[in-house]
Give the backbone structure.
Amino acid sequence: MIDINKLFNDKYKKEDMKKPINLIAFLSLKNAVVSYFSTYKSIKDIADNIFESSTAIFIPNYIEQYYETIIHFQHFFELIMKDILKENNKIDTKELNELGFITALEKIIDLVKKNELKKDKYEFFYKNEKVLRKLNTKRNDLWHRESVFLKYKSFDVIIGKYIFPIVNEIVELPEYKGLDRLWRGTNRKLHSGIEPFNEIILICKSKNPHLDKLAFFKELGRASYNYERGFGELKPDFVKRAENIAKNEVKESPTNENIMLCPVCGVKSLVRYEDVTRDIDCQPYIRDIKCYSCTFELHYKGMRNLKDFYKEYGILDFWLN
Ligand SMILES: [Zn+2]
């Protein structure tokens, strides 16, 4: 029989990381960001209802992405706060193991107020205390208590307006520079030059952010994690295959105008799907767009034409012929 102790002791360490806590913290951050970006995809077919009336959503995929977003952002912040306290010699290893999210937050705020932790570096924890406390409560509700969820719009705004800016403060700290690849992957910029993470922060600065704009950038962000350029361009055989699938999808169309350049991966494998069944005159309209290289995908419901807002990025006319 296999010895269970032997199995659990069969371990290894990632020795080349200066601080192993960073690996887990930043992987958690990646999970949180990807999950948040994925929340549009899980509701896209009914987005018009959700954007307009913010109805309750009980779609398993959406609930899963929501849950992963909350859990992983809270985990990321907790590990980072502990790391800052440990690295600044404010706690020992024993205390590190005993500290929870709130006690770590309170300790940092106390030390910042007393200037025992550099105010200019860590003051953002103090400024965002309320948000961090509320995020922790939401995480605890999900983890320990009940299935209560935030409405779609409020959740969107909380992440874009409050959580993403705190993440920005952390990843800009000198001690965490150079860890981008762990959470952003190798494709920080999309083919179109857009940075979805920063665009979402900008949109959420307005009083009444448009949910379709946010959804558009979330989907760009989600799809960007599906392709990794690595050290060079996409492999030619991969590109060819995606282009061939796209061509096959529109083979009944006499022109190729329904195959477009994808703003995420830059491959000409973005297909516009027409639907002629909706209107009495059988005027075609675009129902969906989908890229067969990176999986970028939008559904027409709830989504205005975005090209007018984003001329500077060369966003194409997805919906109209
Ligand atoms: Zn693509």
